[in-house]
């Protein structure tokens, strides 16, 4: 059976310095673990074709579908603050682009598909664990309504990869609005190749920010648009307790999607200083640092765009600074209005910010679970009977009681009440998130015992994060005290 992809590969038509043409390295025994049927349909792909032997071989990089133009893209990046002039897709290969059912152009990329000219010392492969982690967390983010790359499929390769030990190899098919990163701009800017920076900026405008094309200053409009999208994105991360873990400039998408799921994790207990990543020893990418890091990364993007902004360097710098200064307000607006919704406050009144901050501070002191506190507040908003369940999340519940009294007074000024308010709160306060202990348990079952039932179950629950699903109530629970995960590891 032929597997049809209606490829139209705009990135492969850019100058040849943007990528290396390279085919995936064949694998021995491809085996389909998971196909995202719904996403396949959205992409205009036929899930039945994809699940055939030929389809699975494509998803494993063993067979190149018609119309694909496999490339590894070039990029640079600041990793933990240090500039690395050449990174690039070392273990990922872009097969091509397709325009989805809604007219949006999407990249189809194989991650873990073998070495490329950008692999440096790496093997170009991915182990099963990180592939499952990315599948779970990226799909959970999508279900939460947060911009993200998607997972179309996960396949086992039949080959082993060598990490600390031998591990089963796997390939993830990643779908993204594009794979342009801040690091892609840095790659060309660092080489002084202004024409390439311009071509890349034009491509980004055409693809993601068509309105910028008609602006008086299109490249400034591009910068402003990326800043706005990133500010919104990071606000949404914070509102669900997400920590990306490696916010290097090469892991920050120009399209404003969450990308490159490595040691990412969600908070259980609320503490803004939380760091999970084993490689983030100084806490650069801690939960609460994410807005400041996003702004730092966007400053690197602005530097790349300087030669395009104005004729005169000083004017360019002035424009870039003004654009960057909008980040803080944009982030705060999105974050604060998100927090208000989480507390059932639809109108905006003086004192709201202090009230929310006060709750957060008390959550830190009381070691309260982030997700459950907000979710249970949606019941407590119905009346003080709901307080028992929230109180139980605090080591010392007295500070909550005091706060709840003030919160109820404030709720009294809201037009919405009762079950309508509960419903709107439940739409923004997830019941389930991909808790680390669950993700780790799924990976362990898959890698150690070849059991994929837990993976399927977790995906089912996370597909409807704002609903409590019968039979799956335990997924909302925080880890037992001795089952907390404190460290997460990179995808490699
Ligand atoms: P990441 O950790 O995904 O942000 O990757 C950082 C850089 O390391 C990128 O250039 C990757 O392509 C490269 N890389 C990560 N893992 C591997 C691997 N197993 N083989 C080759 N390159 C890799
Ligand atoms: Mg990366």
UniProtKB/TrEMBL annotation:
Which residue positions are annotated as catalytic? 250
Q: Which InterPro entries match?
A: SelO
Q: Which residues bind ATP?
A: 88, 90-91, 111, 123-124, 174, 181, 260
What role does it play? Nucleotidyltransferase involved in the post-translational modification of proteins. It can catalyze the addition of adenosine monophosphate (AMP) or uridine monophosphate (UMP) to a protein, resulting in modifications known as AMPylation and UMPylation.
Q: Which gene encodes it?
A: ydiU
Presence of the UniProt keyword Manganese in the record: yes
Tell whether Metal-binding is among the UniProt keywords.
yes
Q: Which NCBIfam families match?
A: PRK00029.1
Q: What is this protein called?
A: Protein nucleotidyltransferase YdiU
Cofactor(s) essential for the protein: Mg(2+); Mn(2+)
Family, per entry: Belongs to the SELO family.
Protein EC: 2.7.7.-, 2.7.7.108
Q: Please tell me which top-level EC class this enzyme sits in.
A: transferase
One MF term from GO for this chain?
magnesium ion binding
**Catalyzed chemical reaction(s):** L-histidyl-[protein] + UTP = N(tele)-(5'-uridylyl)-L-histidyl-[protein] + diphosphate; L-seryl-[protein] + ATP = 3-O-(5'-adenylyl)-L-seryl-[protein] + diphosphate; L-threonyl-[protein] + ATP = 3-O-(5'-adenylyl)-L-threonyl-[protein] + diphosphate; L-seryl-[protein] + UTP = O-(5'-uridylyl)-L-seryl-[protein] + diphosphate
List positions binding Mg(2+): 251, 260
| Keyword entries, A-Z | ATP-binding, Magnesium, Manganese, Metal-binding, Nucleotide-binding, Nucleotidyltransferase, Transferase
